[in-house]
Each structure stands twice: as structure tokens, then as C-alpha cells.
Amino acid sequence: METESEPYVRLATLRQLHKVVTDLNTARSLADTLQTVADGIVAGLGYELACVNLVRPDGDLVVAAFAGSAAAEALITGRVGSRTSWDRRLSMGEAWGELRFIPHTEGWVLIEDDVPQWHTDGPEPRFEDEWHPQDRLYAPMYASGGGRELLGVISVDRPRNGRRPGPWGQEALQMYASQAAIAISNARLRANMQRALVRLEREQQALRASEESFRQAFEYAPSGMAIAEMGGDQHGRLLRTNDALCRLLGRPASAMRRYSFADLVHPEDVGTLLRTSAEGGRAEIRLGRRDGSYVWVSLRNSVVADTADGPRFLLTHVEDIEDRKRHELQLAPRLARRAHRPAQQRGTARPAQLAPVRAAARGLRDRHRGARRRVRDRPRFPQ
User: Fold this and answer.
1) Which of 106, 125, 232, 275 could serve as 130's disulfide partner, Cβ 3.0–4.6 Å?
2) Rounded to 5 degrees, what angle do the CA atoms 49, 53, 58 make?
3) Is residue 70 a part of any domain in this protein?
4) Same domain, 159 and 15
5) Residue 307 and residue 231 share a domain
6) Is residue 212 one of the residues assigned to a domain?
């Protein structure tokens, strides 16, 4: 009779397995996926308790989900077992394909190790395949590929029929563990992608804020600012100029994009401009205005990279120094005449000119001292 019912048992198990595997793919987050894995064991594979132990980055395993007992879930969820203890468990007992079964006759040595566990005492089995409360059955979950990277371990307890699973039950649990590993890997991938997207969005927001700050500082700077190309056939061509520079040179921004500073510089200052380095270079030159006149400016260069490996641009700060240069030009003739005057006119004879004044001062000082001496030495009258 049992042989005749085996196909029906397999068919019912396959239907249940299909349903719980389908549910694995409906979970959205990693936490939901882990809980769905545990719930599927209880709902579809005929066990009363199921626990999902997930490998952490440090190699230890944490109880990430539990199903079947609220008391057991509150007791062990979140607790951690060392990888050494788990490796010991996965090498003990009997190998049922990828599964690992540790009967109560061997598992008593594991009661005191650091792996979180939930078990109850019970009588000795009455028949050979009866399940004992201290029997342990583990289904390792490995990442897809040939590396056999351990993702976690599913542990089950208390089969509803009270018996150890037969070949078909073992195969069903092994198939479920394989599908659970795929679902967990996909959930981790989605979680990593979501974190990466959030991080990328934050970086883009910061970049947009930085670009807006730079634009505001560039456009509304009180002195001239310009961005020019670096390298290539268009080296030095002005790409962008702010309003202050356009007003200084009397040229609209659209017209400025047709020039480079080499096109606008005074012919006598071309050499100075060419000798100015791109990074940190400074120069005082004359730039041509639209009306044909020239204005003295101070240039300061710096190199700006568009991206980590992208094109670089030349940022130039242009300061109007026309008034200072005009004042310097006005003082230049005076300084030149002073440098060529005789030494006597530049101040060498000044001590001789002051001699009469100093003699008169000494005479006044001597007369004052004599008056004080006479007052001190005059006779005093009795009171």
C-alpha cells in the first residue's frame, strides 16, 4: 500500500515545493526573503520548526530568520554561532547528499557549543526511523558557481509525521535549499544595487550642489572669471566668461567664445602670457577692449578636472589693475629723477643744515638749567 501511494506523495510534495519556491521570488528585501525561506519549510515541507542561519562578512553565522515557534524565535534570533562550530557540525553525522543529519546519539556533544539552538528532551525512539527531539538536520546553502561559497545553513526540526525524512523528503529539502540560496543571492544583489543607487544619488546631489555653488560663484564674482580649453587644436579658447569680464572688456559672452587670451593680449605682452604656467601661473598683461583700447589686468591660472579621468580646463581669474598701473606710471618719472639727483640733494647735506637748529636748542636748554640753578641757590627768608 505504501508503494502504491508513493507517486501521490511525491506529486503532493512537488506541488507544495513549487508553491513555496514561487513565494521565494516574491519577497522584495533580504530580510523578507530570509523569513520567506523559513516560512516555506514549515508551510510546504512538513517540519514544525525551521531556522535560517546566514553567513556574516566575518564568516560567523547569525540566526537571521525563524519559523514555527514564537518562543524559540525570541530566544535565538539575532544570536551568532562561530564558523568553527558550524564547520564541525557540517562534518559530523551522516551525509544525505548535500544534507547533514546528526542523530541524537552523536549530537549530545554539541549541546554546549556556541551555536544558537532550540531543543527539547524526549523519550528514546520506539522504531528505527522515528525522529528524536535532539536529532539535527542541516541543509547548507551554497552560492551558484564552482566555488561552493557557503551562504548559510537551514536547520529543521520536528517532522510532522514524527519520522526522519526518506529519500524523497531529503531530495525535496535539498532542492529547496538550492532554490533558497539563489533567492538569497538575488536579494543580496538587489540590496547592494539599491545601496549603490542611493549612494550614487547622494553623490549626484552633492555634485549638482557643488556645480551650482561653482556656477553662482563664477557668474556673480566681482572680478573677471574665464574657463578655457586645455590641449588639442582649441587650446586656450575661451569656453565661458562671467559678466564681470565681459563688462571689463566691453564684449558680450557670445563674442568672447570666439577668442583666446592670446587673441586679446597686447602685442608687447604676448611673451609674458606664453611664459605663464597653467597651474598657479600669474601675469600682469594688457587685454584689448572692444573699443580698441587696452586695460591692465592680473591673471591667475588654475587647472580644473571635469572628472577623474576626463578633460581638464583652465580656470583664469582676471583682476582689473588699471588704476594701480596708471599710478605706477605716474610715479615712475619722479622715481627716475630722484634716482639721478646728486647725493647732496637727496639728503646727505641734511645734518649740516640742521646744525644751527641743534645749536639753538642746546642754548635754550643751558639757559633753562641756569635759571633752575639760580632759583635753587637764592637765600630763603624766614617765615
Assistant:
1) 125
2) 165
3) yes
4) yes
5) yes
6) no
Inside any domain, residue 149 = yes
Report in angstroms the alpha-carbon separations of 344 from 168, 356, 357.
Answer: 121, 18, 19
Instruction: Round to whole Å and give the CA distance between 166 and 10.
Output: 11
- C-alpha cell belonging to residue 260: 583666446
Whether residue 300 is predicted with pLDDT greater than 50 in this model: the reply is: yes
What's the pLDDT band for 26 if we cut at 50, 70, 90?
A: confident
End-to-end CA distance of the chain: 156
Angle at which helices 2-24 and 167-219 cross, to 10°: 0
> Would you state the cell numbers that stand for residue 163, as one nine-digit string?
519520522
Whose cell is 536547520? That residue is 155
Q: What is the domain extent for residue 78?
A: 2-194
What is the edge-to-edge ordering of all strands in the sheet holding 150-159? 80-81, 61-67, 47-55, 150-159, 136-142, 99-102, 94-96
Of 194, 212, 228, the domain-final residue: 194
Output the pTM of the full model: 0.58
| Cα within 13 Å of Cα(182), Cβ side | 12
For the chain, what is the largest distance between any 2 Cα atoms, rounded to a whole number of angstroms?
Answer: 158
Residue range 53-83, pLDDT digits in tens: 999 999 999 999 999 999 889 999 999 999 9
Q: Measure CA 87 to chain center.
A: 36
Does residue 9 sit in the same domain as residue 129? yes
Q: Which amino acid is at 71?
A: A
Q: Is the residue at 349 inside a domain? A: no
Residues 40 and 188 reside in one and the same domain = yes
Q: Are 262 and 301 contained in the same domain?
A: yes
Cα 70 to Cα 50, 109, 110, 117, 156: the distances in Å are: 12, 26, 23, 14, 15
Bridge partner residues of 304 (DSSP)? 313
Beta strands in the chain (DSSP E): 47-55, 61-67, 80-81, 94-96, 99-102, 136-142, 150-159, 224-229, 238-241, 282-288, 294-305, 312-320
> Domain boundary residue among 194, 228, 247?
194
- Average pLDDT of the residues in 124-134: 85
For the domain that residue 224 is a member of, what is the CATH number? 3.30.450.20
What is the amino acid identity at position 264?
A: L
Do 229 and 141 fall within a single domain? no
Buried b (16+ CB within 10 A) or exposed e, 103-127: bbeebeebeeeebbbbbeeeeebee
